[in-house]
């Protein structure tokens, strides 16, 4: 969407697994989040030219926003990606969805089989189900196809 000029920004967020702290890591916010965002970067590089993606990150068109810095933000004319959202709590889910501004779209990705929260019932995914039932224009989709090696699916079923 960014490269086709349909939005001004791509916002990427992902919870630090099991509420791990990032403050002790060296560098700025992006550098601190890089270990958690490596899978997203990898996928962007597979889809688009890596040099172009890195340029958009450097000029701020692709922005990394940790959950700790969501409050007070409004994402206008943006495409927001919330990755590993199974590890987002209900209150964090409300916070990130509440940042959505005019002209924006949000994609929330996660796998209920991979919840790392101490109490698995704390996941914000139940909130998403209620939103789909009660908010026009809010949709969820379950994707079942495994795009990884064919051996992965039977392993996960054991």
Features:
158 residues, Rossmann fold, 33% helix
SSE blueprint:
Elements: E1 9-13, H1 29-47, H2 50-58, E2 62-64, E3 78-82, H3 90-97, E4 105-108, H4 125-134, H5 152-157
Parallel strand pairs: 1-2, 1-3, 3-4
Please give a structural write-up.
- By secondary structure, this protein is α/β, with parallel strands linked by helices.
- It has a single domain (9-157), classed as Rossmann fold (3-Layer(aba) Sandwich), CATH 3.40.50.
- 33% of the residues lie in helices and 11% in strands.
- It has helices at 29-47, 50-58, 90-97, 125-134, 152-157, and strands at 9-13, 62-64, 78-82, 105-108.
- Strands 2-1-3-4 form a four-stranded parallel sheet.
- The longest helix has 19 residues, at 29-47.
- The radius of gyration is 16 Å and the shape is globular.
- The mean pLDDT is 86.
By secondary-structure content and strand pairing, the structural class works out as alpha/beta
- Find the count of extended strands (DSSP E, 2+ residues): 4
Unreliable segments (pLDDT under 50, ≥5 consecutive)? none
Which homologous superfamily in CATH is the superfamily? Answer: P-loop containing nucleotide triphosphate hydrolases
H/E element order:
EHHEEHEHH
Cα-based radius of gyration, to the nearest Å: 16 Å
Average residue-wise pLDDT: 86
- Distance linking N and C termini: 38 Å
Shape: globular
**CATH-assigned fold name:** Rossmann fold
Strand order of the largest sheet: 2-1-3-4
């Amino acid at each position: 969407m960014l490269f086709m000029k349909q939005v001004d920004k791509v916002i990427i967020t992902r919870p630090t697994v099991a509420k791990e702290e990032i403050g002790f890591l060296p560098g700025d916010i992006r550098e601190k989040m890089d270990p958690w965002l490596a899978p997203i970067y990898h996928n962007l590089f597979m889809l688009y030219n890596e040099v172009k993606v890195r340029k958009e990150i450097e000029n701020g068109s692709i922005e990394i926003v940790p959950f700790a810095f969501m409050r007070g933000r409004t994402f206008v004319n943006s495409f927001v990606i919330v990755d590993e959202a199974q590890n987002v709590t209900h209150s964090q889910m409300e916070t990130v969805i509440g940042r959505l501004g005019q002209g924006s779209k949000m994609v929330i990705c996660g796998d209920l089989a991979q919840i790392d929260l101490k109490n698995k019932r704390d996941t914000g995914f139940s909130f998403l189900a209620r939103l789909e039932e009660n908010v026009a224009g809010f949709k969820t989709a379950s994707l079942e196809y495994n795009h990884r090696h064919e051996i992965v699916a039977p392993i996960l079923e054991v």
